Amino acid sequence: MTRIAIDPSRPIGHLDRKVFGGFVEHLGRCIYGGLYDEGSPLRDDRGFRKDVLSLLRELRMGVLRWPGGNFVSNYHWADGIGPKDARPMRPELAWGGEESNRFGTDEYLAYCAELGTEPYICLNMGTGTLEEALAWVEYCNDARDTYWAGLRRRNGRDEPWRVTYWGLGNEMYGDWQVGALSADEYVREATRWARAIRMLDPGAKLVSCGMNGWNEWDRVVIDGMAGLTDYHSLHIYTGSEDYWTNVLAPHQAERAIDCARSLLRRAAYRQKLATPPRIAYDEWNVWYRNMTGALEERYDFTDALAVATYLNIFVRNCDWVRMANLAQMVNAIAPIVTTPETATVQPIWYPVLLHAQAALEVAVDVHVSGPVVDAELSAGPSRWPHRVSDLGPFTLVDAAATVNAHRRRIALTLVNRSPEEPETVELIVRDYALEGEASIRTVTAESSNKSRVLPGVEAASLEQGSVAAKDGRVVVTLPPRSFTVIEGDLADD
Ligand code: AHR
Questions:
Q1: pLDDT value at residue 450
Q2: Distance CA 219, CA 209 (A)
Q3: Does 331 contact ligand 1 (Cβ within 6 A)?
Q4: Which portions of the chain are predicted below pLDDT 70?
Q5: How far, in Å, is the centroid of ligand 1 from the Cα of 69?
Q6: 143-177 burial: b if 16+ Cβ within 10 Å, else e
Q7: Could you give all domains of the chain from N- to C-terminal order, each with its CATH number?
């Protein structure tokens, strides 16, 4: 039996909807043949695949990062505007192949507008110049009668697009990145860029390029950039064939958040900043099977448990994590898979969907007491240098909770990581009482409604039900390997 005590009087913070963000890169079949397909009968008049668009709309993403990723470090945005047939074909260095430029800035921004999501553009600090970056900001955001804004108007968009979020380069520390820099070189260059972009667009919110949160790169970049940026980015990918390593590795994000938060606080104190930059986890996911090519990872339900845990961690740390972008959304390491005929979803889709649907305005304190994982950790092979054995013990059930602003509604997200055993949980809300019927949605690998699934893509099953609160509490039995959302009304105790 697991007891979960929730304390709505102890808020963690306002939950920013940008935590339910996405990322799409010009990589494999993510854009071309994924969300954009001019030759498809399923496209709309702009070339957007309607089936993909409607699946993405269900996820209610707060923000969508584009165009990369590694791709951006060799991307010249001005190639991707104006009449499509006049756009140049270019060699693509990050993933190999060519870039047709038929999907560019205006297509991406129209896509975000269609989804009702905030755009977030990552700038090319590899082969790109500051002049080019300024032109991009001017093209997107300037309301005046200036050259690049005029070009935007001639290309059909009168009003500024109002892009608020701009990333200062992608993974600039890595030798896989075109034009990689040392941390000191990055700070020197990014400082010039940040100052100039702010002069052109004082409303721009800038994201410094971070690594994993605990690296020397992060310290140098945070110390150098904290006064000029609004977010520091972190990336994390985990994954392993070993069940427990796969399911528990997301806890490494807790270490990353802890370390980055300390570095950000230290910089803010030493530099007398009123507010430190916050964390943008602008790439995260399970990824370990297909490391090259089009990265068409096939996910199983174990990966879905990891994804659910990642989102619980972001909710529990929402005072610092103000943005997080699932990398990626379509075909390449993605919840959505397309064929020419259809689009379907992989198991990791369900925790992303249910989290985004259930989350309320304020994350609150949750204390879980119950059985802990009794397994040899980091026993299995991992693609990534993540060790979490020093972070445990881990409870079998991982939990996060949000309430609405008036503390009258509560939503809980629970991951039962036990591979074989159901786990009964009792929910206690301190100083409040659960009342009436609480609704329950549970997703498991055991499938009774295998819908929307293609050969090679694993099914998952979503069951809905309800449970009556008794004496202000709710008791629910979670199936093994399951993700559950419980939503209910709160009354004063
Ligand atoms: O998301 C796939 C790749 O992973 C991105 O292009 C890069 O930023 C990271 O290394």
A1: 58
A2: 11
A3: no
A4: 377-382, 447-452
A5: 5
A6: eeeeebbebbeeeebeebbebbbbbbbbbbbeeeb
A7: 2-8+364-492 (2.60.40.1180), 17-360 (3.20.20.80)
Ligand 1 atom nearest the C-alpha of 27 is 6
283, 297, 423, 487: the catalytic one is 283
Specify the pLDDT at position 222: 98
Q: What is the pLDDT of residues 335-389, one digit of tens each?
A: 999 999 999 999 999 999 999 999 999 999 999 999 999 877 654 556 787 788 8
| Residue from 23, 24, 25 whose mutation best tests the ligand 1 pocket (most atoms within 8 A of CB) | 25
DSSP classification of residue 333: T
Question: SS3 of 437, please?
Answer: strand
With a 6 A CB cut-off, is 285 part of the ligand 1 pocket? no
Q: Which of 170, 172, 236, 287 to mutate to test the pocket of ligand 1 (most atoms within 8 A of CB)?
A: 170
pLDDT at 385: 77
pTM to 2 decimal places = 0.96
Indicate which residue's Cα is closest to atom 1 of ligand 1: 327
304 — phi, psi (to 5°)? -65, -35
For residue 376, the model assigns a pLDDT of 72
pLDDT at 382: 65
Verify whether residue 283 is a known catalytic residue.
yes
